[in-house]
Amino acid sequence: MRTRIKICGITRPEDGVMAAELGADAIGLVFYPPSQRHVDIARAAEIAAVVPPLVSVVGLFLDANTEQVEDVLSAVPIDLLQFHGGESAEFCAQFGRRYIKSVGMAGGDPAEVAAAHPHALALLLDGHAPGAAGGSGDVFDWGRKLPTSHRIIVAGGLRPDNVAQAVKMIKPWGVDCSSGVESSPGIKDSSKMAAFTQEVHRG
Ligand SMILES: O=C(O)c1ccccc1NCC(=O)[C@H](O)[C@H](O)COP(=O)(O)O
């Protein structure tokens, strides 16, 4: 099975195109103002407009309110929602969209999140503490027991030099990377992205 790749925290249209051309199956747009990778609605629409077909645009929220999510959905062609905070299943489902739910593995219990979100399409396991922001570069223990009820997307500190090992150990549906393919926060680096996608498929 081919491991899917999401490159998160895209802030520039050219980086969205480059990620897709270098093998990303999805790009992530962060709608969380405190993040250095935050994009406003206008910028997000510019990026989504140039992302090639057959590449998904993921809209990421961390404990946003309903109106904030709806404002984005009414202006940006989002294919998939990613909820990165303590959102309930009811909150996530109210938009009638497909969604994935993240788990902060530094103290968080993936089994508990899996049970609370039976309709999430996948769990995105990230290295940070529950409720904390992502994009931190923190790795979690890949030897941990993981739920089998959901597809797994591994995130957290993945880089070209460690992603093959993560894929080999966990055999996830997909991998997600942000800071590991950047030259500075929010700015993606083409050679790191090329190396990353190559290493995913070696794993
Ligand atoms: O990337 C951010 O700045 C961010 C801020 C707040 C919530 C989530 C955020 N990113 C979520 C992602 O999906 C990242 O790709 C994931 O945390 C992995 O990041 P990294 O460890 O830098 O690869």
Automatic annotation (TrEMBL):
CDD domains: PRAI
Enzyme class: isomerase
InterPro entries to which the protein is assigned, alphabetical: Aldolase_TIM, PRAI_dom, RibuloseP-bd_barrel, TrpF_fam
Pathway field: Amino-acid biosynthesis; L-tryptophan biosynthesis; L-tryptophan from chorismate: step 3/5
Gene3D superfamilies in the record: Aldolase class I
Keyword annotations from UniProtKB, A to Z: Amino-acid biosynthesis, Aromatic amino acid biosynthesis, Isomerase, Tryptophan biosynthesis
Domain N-(5'phosphoribosyl) anthranilate isomerase (PRAI), residue spans: 5-198
GO MF terms, alphabetically ordered: phosphoribosylanthranilate isomerase activity
Record field: catalytic activity: N-(5-phospho-beta-D-ribosyl)anthranilate = 1-(2-carboxyphenylamino)-1-deoxy-D-ribulose 5-phosphate
EC number per UniProt: 5.3.1.24
SUPFAM superfamilies: Ribulose-phoshate binding barrel
GO biological process: L-tryptophan biosynthetic process
Assigned protein family: Belongs to the TrpF family.
The protein's name: N-(5'-phosphoribosyl)anthranilate isomerase
